[in-house]
Amino acid sequence: MENFQSFAVSPANIVLNQALIQSLDLNAEQQVVLNPQDLTQYQIQAYQGHQNKLELIAYAQQLTSTQIAGISQLLADSVDANQWLRVITAGDNQGAIGLAWQLTETLPDDKKQALVEFAANSQIEIWQAAVRPQIQQAGLLLMDMDSTTIKIECIDEIAKLAGVGEEVAKVTELAMQGKLDFAESLRGRVATLKGCPVDVLDKVANDLPLMHGLARLVKVLKQHDWRVAIASGGFTYFADKLKNDLGLDAAVANTLKIADGKLLGEVEGRIVDAQVKAETLQALADQFAVEHSQTIAMGDGANDLTMMAASALGVAFEAKPIVQQKASVAINHHGLDALLYLIR
């Protein structure tokens, strides 16, 4: 590639991170590509994005020359050695960095497994992705709530304060693994909360720990005219608070029956199970006139698999093994905002 420039560092010592790319003073209409044979050589191009090309993406706070070389070695025979590597940023001069190799084939299982092990050992994300949503076009992100947008399972926290924490937590874990019918298990768990004062809900709602990367993810997507919503097998008491606090476009969850300031141990109406989540994805896409190709569903439990399968891109976040296996891609070592680098 002609007309390249060079970083003032040796190839062996280069560290790809946000600070290095920021030093180039790019504008929103530009992107950087690197020479895979000499990582110090770069070229600034007009921004093109992923263009639905088949790519292998590595994402981390920073990528060392050793890590980049290791990935390139694992990808041997699956990439064009002369194809320069696409640097991915989120466009807000924050966060981590991504690097994309354009693939010439879908990776065979042995290479996929080797990359999974490499990613785990290096604490980086590695994704194979082809046709997928693009941030430049309006889209819809539908997320699970408990253990996805927040760091807790609300029903477990309520149960702890109500004195039945251990009993409920065991059932929650089995349900998230797909070993119990979700609706049946939810009714059983809620029944144990009968008589619990509403004050307990307020204590949990007023101290919801947001998942790392959530605020940035929502902010950047909103700047690109995306719709962001929650579909939860949890409860409206918490989902509605998140909707208001974060400026989300919708929140669908279960409603707890309450009378005289206490829980009745029952849920009103139809349980928000896997099928309802999938229906919510379609309903919101219709409501906001979002094309199916621009829909993303993200979650961590078996109850999220149906909506993930119904979306254009299903993302597992710190998920149970069954979800990791079936999702389009998985985020295991970083925050929710890692998603931004998949759709840039």
TrEMBL record:
Cofactor(s) essential for the protein: Mg(2+)
Protein name stated in the entry: Phosphoserine phosphatase
EC number(s) stated in the UniProt entry for this protein: 3.1.3.3
One of the record's GO molecular function terms: L-phosphoserine phosphatase activity
Residues forming the catalytic site: D144, D146
Pathway(s) this gene product operates in, as recorded in its UniProt entry: Amino-acid biosynthesis; L-serine biosynthesis; L-serine from 3-phospho-D-glycerate: step 3/3
Keyword field contains Metal-binding: yes
Catalysed reaction, written as an equation: O-phospho-L-serine + H2O = L-serine + phosphate; O-phospho-D-serine + H2O = D-serine + phosphate
Alphabetized UniProt keyword annotations: Amino-acid biosynthesis, Hydrolase, Magnesium, Metal-binding, Serine biosynthesis
Family from the record: Belongs to the HAD-like hydrolase superfamily. SerB family.
Superkingdom of this protein's organism: Bacteria
GO biological process: L-serine biosynthetic process
GO cellular component, as recorded: cytoplasm
Pfam families: Hydrolase
Coiled-coil portions: none
Keyword ATP-binding on entry: no
